[in-house]
Amino acid sequence: MMTKKLKVHKVSKRFQGLLAIDNLTFELETNEILGLIGPNGAGKTTLVNLISGTMRPTHGTILFEDIPIQNLSPYKRSRMGIARTFQIMNPFPALTVLDNVAVGALFGTIGGCTNMETARNEALHWLEFVGISRHAKRLANVLSGPECKRLELAKALAMRPKLLILDEVMAGLNHSEIEELVQVIKKVRERGISIIVIEHVMKAIKSLCERLVVIQHGIKIAEGSTEDVLASNEVISAYLGKRKRL
Amino acid sequence: MKTLLFLLAAFGLATIPWWGSASFIQFCIDALLVAVLAQSWNIIGGFTGYASFGNSVFYGLGGYGVAISMLQFGLPFEVGLCIGALIGTSVALILGLPILRLRGFYFGIATLSLTFTMTSLVSNISFAGGNIGLVLPIGPSDTLFFELSLALLGAATLTVWWIARSRFGLGLVAIRENELTAAVMGINTTLYKVLAFMLSGLLASLAGGIHAYWITFLDPGSAFDLSLNVKMIIMTVFGGPGTVLGPILGAFSLSAISEMLAFYITNLANLFYGFVIVIAIIFMPRGCIDLALHYREQGWRYFLENIKKTKI
Amino acid sequence: MRKALLENLNIRCRHGNSGKYKMILLWQVLVNGVLLGGIYAAMALGLVLAWGVLHIVNVAHGALIMLGAYVSYYLFTFIGLDPFAGMPLSMIVMFGFGYLLQLYLLNFMIKAPMFNTLLLTFGLAVIFANLAQFAFSADFRIINPVYAGDNFVWLGATIPLVRILAFGVAMTLTLFLWAFLTYARYGRAIRATAQNLVAARLYGINPRKIYAMTFGIVGAFAAASGVLYGVVWQINPYIGSNLTAKSFAIAIIGGLQNPLYVIVGGLFLGIIESLSSLYLGPTYSDLVFFGILVLILIVRPTGLLGKTA
Cα(A89)–Cα(A51) distance, rounded to whole angstroms? Predict the structure, then answer.
């Protein structure tokens, strides 16, 4: 019986001189929310790129539902059920908000949807789910920062993924916006989707994630339940530096 | 309602050979064929965002397909046209696969180089007439060529219209807007780009085949004419890239004005194209169609907005 | 040049297809290629500057070279100023032209997508060529200083004086531009603005002026290569497009990182042109060169020497 949605096994990524990810191994259970944290530059976004297919690993294997995917092109992986959001806003500027999401519904789903109208109805449903349906007919480039984040989420959800990777979706949001988005993500989990959350906002991490993986300089330095990891010394010194005895 | 207007317009156009003068009909045939070329560029450049400088390669290949089939193999025109189209589309497939991996400007340079390469290559092949060219047999009347070109333009426009509202077209636009995201969202970008390129090549080679038979002469310089390549780009950009009617609007209006100018001084026509593109690209970079859509609410501010976005 | 080649061929015919004369011919062709290549490299300099620093795809570059050639021609014809001696004057004229062009036209398109600036400069190229035709007529012009026919022989190859002078000037210009950009304060300001506009502004650099100065330099270098073109080949209003294509090819092959790499690209083009002209005939040189360019783009899109953009 398959319980592990994703297995990242001894993955490394080298960019000419720089070893961005070094021998990283972790697993994601089905329908769990896993947090991926670490200081800036640790390699988190690189890892997301490796899983979603924008980059290929130098060494190691990535198994999705026990199928090796490290050599598949991005579009194939998305059709298998992997979706991600982008840290830097990446909408299609000349398309409407609705069509932005419709692209996900048309192309990213397992099985695919070929009817434009069905796709657009789906897209509207997802816009309502994330709460920006009033902007449906506007061009994507007029959205504000937080609204753009929600659009990213809607685009990913429209792909009906089995694995959703959220890359710093909380950045730049105020307290109430964070609260709202946390509730939305919990609703997503209720639909059976497995989620990897990359975040700096600890409040969101604590509300959402049961388990955490901590990365620094491309190496996993901790893994375990949220409370344990956040209390561990290595993690604290990774973020804050070595504790000085005064 | 709109469809009725279009059908009326098309019907009206179709009757031109019966009331127009001989030279007007010839001007129209040229304009119709260049509009087909503009639509072909629209597919790969306007929708997919890959600005090809090599559509004249397919145009020329279509022409040579017809010429060689008719002269060396004695085949009828229709077969020659199909052969030309087949050659054009296959070349688009074979060359498209490696070249469409290049982004933006490098794609442009690669397609431009193809134009030079093809010109040089064909001028060294003797059964293609070499540098001297080929003379085709005299074809049917201008009326027939007119209707044929009009039909081709109709087919091309219908294709673009279908693309604009289909899943395929949305995929192309997504590729244009953000290729990386498009790939991650499930679009098979390689397949789509190559298909767009092949469609583009098909239309261009059909236009080239008809044109070659019509003027009954073909040589490497005129077949792979670079200035034609640029004209189709200017017309599409002026009319509205990524729209259905933009290329037709651009092609007809610019052809008409340049024809009138050429009446006075030959060089004035070329100078005119130069000024058109300079002014259009600064003040209305999304073409006439976009201007028409936004002018009512924005008026003169439309132009100022465009400059503000790009100036320093 | 042709005379020298024919002389060589004559020798070959008289002594049969002997290996030694084949070698002499090959050597002559290589020397020709290198000399040509140096001139091509100088032409590509301005383009690399505009593209690498200003991110402007300057399709009008060949037209600027053409205008520079005409300036030199008219200086030569009306006041008898030797083209090499008059080069600084041509450069100053075209510097001003480039400066104004950037300040009052191109600066309006700096933030536009590259394709749009490409179309803009293309339109300018068409305008310049056609206006030049109105002003100067389409006749071919030659700049013929007194020493135009002088040759000297070096290691068995015949070298026309103007070509070696042109080559020397071309190399000097390239080295000068590289040194300027790398060491001179203003040159580094230009590169800084290219890399980070916001930061440059914070340091008090006025980007409009810097861009204008940069394009002025582009104009000046176009003028210089126009002069070199004029003493080696014939001038007419339509030489621009061919030169633009070649300059782009050189920029791509050599890479945009360093003006010195332009030399590699230029030599590559010069030698290929010469060799294919000799062994395959002149109708094939376009095919060979652009065919190779397409292959390089496909196999190694970053150019032969590293990153291009």
Answer: 19
Nearest Cβ partner of C245 from B112, B114, B131? B112
- What average pLDDT does range C121-149 have in this prediction? 87
Could you write out the DSSP letters of every residue in C19-30?
Answer: HHHHHHHHHHHH
E-state strands within A116-218? 163-167, 194-198, 211-216
What is the structure's pLDDT at C308?
39
Residue C235 pairs in a beta bridge with C141
Q: Are B170 and A99 in contact (CB < 8 Å)? A: yes
Q: Provide the CATH number for the domain around residue B95.
A: 1.10.3470
* Domain that includes residue B152, residue range: 2-268
Determine the residue of chain B that is closest to C244 in CA distance: B109
- Residue B142: inside a domain: yes
CATH code for the structural domain at C2-299: 1.10.3470
Strand partners, A45: none
Q: How many CB atoms lie within 10 A of CB A190?
A: 9
Domain extents for chain C? 2-299
What percent of the residues of chain C are helix, what percent strand, and what percent coil, each to the nearest 5?
75, 5, 20
Highest mean pLDDT among A4-8, A230-234, B26-30, C1-5 belongs to B26-30
Domain count, chain B: 1
**pLDDT value at position A114?**
80
Question: Of C110, C129, C130, which has the smallest distance from its Cβ to B310's Cβ?
Answer: C110
Q: How would residue C185 be classed by pLDDT, with cut points 50, 70 and 90?
A: confident
Provide, as residue numbers in chain B, all residues whose Cβ is less than 8 Å from the Cβ of A83.
185
Type of residue numbered C149: G
Question: Quick one: angle between helices A97-107 and A116-130, nearest 10?
Answer: 120
Q: Which chains touch A (3 or more CB pairs under 8 A)?
A: B
Question: Parallel, antiparallel, or unpaired: how do β-strands A194-198 and A163-167 relate?
Answer: parallel
Contact flag A92-B187 (C-beta cutoff 8 Å): no
Check CB contact under 8 Å for B310 and C109: yes
| Token couple for C161 | 């004086």
* Calpha distance C53→A204 (Å, rounded): 43
Residue B125 CB coordination number (10 Å) = 12
Report the alpha-carbon distance of residue C232 to residue C165 in Å, rounded: 10
CB contact under 8 A, C283 and B120: yes
Phi/psi for A242 (5° steps) reads -65, 140
C near A: at least 3 beta-carbon pairs less than 8 Å apart? no
Q: Which residues of chain B have pLDDT under 70?
A: none
Segment B69-106, tens digit of pLDDT: 988 888 888 899 999 999 999 999 999 999 998 887 88
Looking at residue B244, its pLDDT comes to 93
Token reading at A29: 């259970």
The pLDDT of residue A20 is 87
CB-based contact A54 B184, cutoff 8 Å = yes
**Which chain C residue's Cα is nearest to B277?**
C123
- B282 falls within a domain: no
Residue B111 placed within a domain: yes
Pairs of residues, one from chain A and one from chain B, whose beta carbons lie less than 8 Å apart: 75
Interface test with B, best of C122, C193, C276, C299 (most B CBs within 10 A): C122
With bands split at pLDDT 50, 70 and 90, how would you rate the model's confidence at C63? very high
Q: What percent of chain C has pLDDT over 90?
A: 17
A93, A114, A159 ranked by CB distance to B185: nearest: A159
The reported pLDDT for the residue numbered A110 is 72
Instruction: Establish if B253 belongs to a structural domain.
Output: yes
| Contact state of B116 with C123 under an 8 Å Cβ cutoff | no
pLDDT at A242: 62
Cα A116 to Cα B166: distance, rounded to the nearest angstrom: 7
